[in-house]
Amino acid sequence: MTTQSDSLKSLQRQLFHALVVQSAIPFILMYVPIGMAFMFPMLNIELNLKYPFIGLTVAIYPAIDPLPSILIIASYRKGAIGLVKALKCWNRKVGVNKNSTRQESIVMFTIEA
């Protein structure tokens, strides 16, 4: 009889939920729109669409696919939050130290549109 630790069970549960969501994303973003484009004309249903959303949903899929893993798995989520917090700190300037005469600062460049 083997026993598993609570942390291992929690990780397996998180991985399962991430897998379920990652399986639903291509179904929703690719199979459903393309299925609609093929099925509605066969059923003689006219939507008056030129189906530009199909290319958009297929193009957005690679950007959305890793998000469930990042948001559902706790260690990835903590790492992503830490990264965002570290990037926010880059915008702040560090003040002058009492023992030092130079001012240290980290400057983050921005792209202006």
From TrEMBL:
Molecular function terms from GO: G protein-coupled olfactory receptor activity
Keywords: Membrane, Transmembrane, Transmembrane helix
Superkingdom: Eukaryota
Transmembrane portions of the chain: 15-40, 52-76
InterPro entries for this protein: 7TM_GPCR_serpentine_rcpt_Str
Gene Ontology cellular-component terms listed: plasma membrane
Pfam families: 7TM_GPCR_Str (PF10326)
One GO BP: olfactory behavior
Protein name: G protein-coupled receptor
